[in-house]
Amino acid sequence: MRRVQVLVTIVLLAAALPAVAKQSGVLHGLSLFDDLKYPADFTHFDYVNPAAPKGGQLRLEGIGSFDTLNPFVIKGTAAAGSGLIYDSLMEGSRDEASSDYGLLAESVEVPDDLSWVAFNLRPQARWHDGQPLTADDVVFAFDTLKAQGRPLYRHYYANVASAVAEGPHRVRFAFTGPRNRELPTIVAQLPALPRHYWRDRAFDATTLEPPLGSGPYRIGEVKPGRSISYERVVDYWGRDLPVNRGRYNFDRFAIEYYRDRTVSLEAFKADLIDFRSENAAKVWATQYDFQAVRDGAVIKETLPDDTPQGMQGFVFNLRRPMFQDRRVREALNYTFDFEWSNANLFFDQYVRTESFFSNSELAASGLPDAAELALLEPLRGQIPDEVFTKAYAAPRTDGPGGLRGNLRRASRLLREAGWEVRDQRLVNTATGKPMAIEFLVVQAASERVVAPMLRNMERLGITATLRVIDSSQYINRVRNFDFDMISASFPQSLSPGNEQRTYWGSDAADRPGSRNRMGLRDPAVDALIDRVIFAGSRAELVAATRALDRVLLWQHLLIPNYHLASHRIAYWNRFGRPAVLPKYGLGVSSTWWLDAEKDAALRRRR
User: Is the CATH number of domain 311-563 3.30.450.40?
Assistant: First the structure.
């Protein structure tokens, strides 16, 4: 996976098969849509300042805690940014939907039949200890991540059969299964790992020993659970590559951990944190009117976000018997009053999410067209009938009946599913067992959003409780699927692919640590995931994704939340940033720089 960008959601990029086949041969980059934006002789990305000064520091926030510096395994909670010390084979462009350019690899070779991909490595690549980075390290990384890494790697590399070093600077990956337009890009995102470093260490264990990397930063001071810093590698082997020029400008950036975002906001106001991306509408509307904002020492702004918003929602754990009936899940959807929440909690800043691929052309709308029906008809009887007859829309309370009407509909669905109210408690008519739901959260601030919905559930006779636990407990419980309901997000790219298996695939349902939070096992969904992965053109990909979207929506796997297609950011006015911002993401830690004059002005203000 690409180096982790702090405070920026990483998305997995892919796209249509003809673009890959069209570019077969020896290439300087991969484009999965059409032509690459940047030619072979490009000098830097458009969204950087190639003359940006180096120096200074960037101070960021972390929430909760950490107990390992290995971000690749399931054990422990990895420190934020710990992927920054590694280089990947290629680097993604943030102003193209799905393009990669050479980083460790100076060129890439793809045959017309997409049966393999080969990367020719740069001979000058070095680990931080000075040893050469070779094809053996790339092979080691692939084999180790697939065997011992997080479950997502096994799904992500499921159709990558092998990696073979064909020389010290050439590695070839062989593919299995049907022609897969995504596999060359998947492999291009692979980080290299040092075989010689891990030879005498357990890769699948937690560690607080700073691992060896090859990237633009190395790990500096570590205070377990409290803070971590990263130091710029002055003699970084790849500093002058086109993909890196104008990037990684801070000599140091530090991440200080706080108990929750309420505490970290106070730290930001006290100039202990430089940058903050705000995710709470109420806080954005009410907590940023302090003196430093008023006098310009802190900049508060909203920037457009063109990335797909995916889905965030209150997820049902289908491993629990009470959630296995689709009617129960649909009924509980009626307990979330988004319109009230948006007006009273969110200052009308959000729109309701009604697609797993929101804010993109991949989102289903209206009734399925001919291309979608060609995929859905063979599954008739295995998928909800509504897929064919209704356009999905989340329940609303600003129409006839409002919340009261919605709760009546919920009661009717629960009765149909075999539940009835006895002595003011909703019980299963077959077992007599009452319905009790525990909603697990990691931040107390979530209570204001979840609690009104739980009160509405109580009006139906459900015993609904909210439990706030610390981050390490939360991670372990979610990892082991020990919850009734949680809030979870499912980020998407402009071109989804193999990662869909980790979200909804049956094989991932019971793998600890997988992102199939709801525990979905559905052969029809598995079939549609394959249609997405093995689509032969962009048009086929769009049709398959929309068909998958419809089936997921009508399964009522979660209660859809809301989204905002913009970034809400605040930062102390000591930085410079490129004139052109990246289209996808913010690039704060990788493209901004310290402006010495602005920093001096802030220091004089104290």
Answer: no
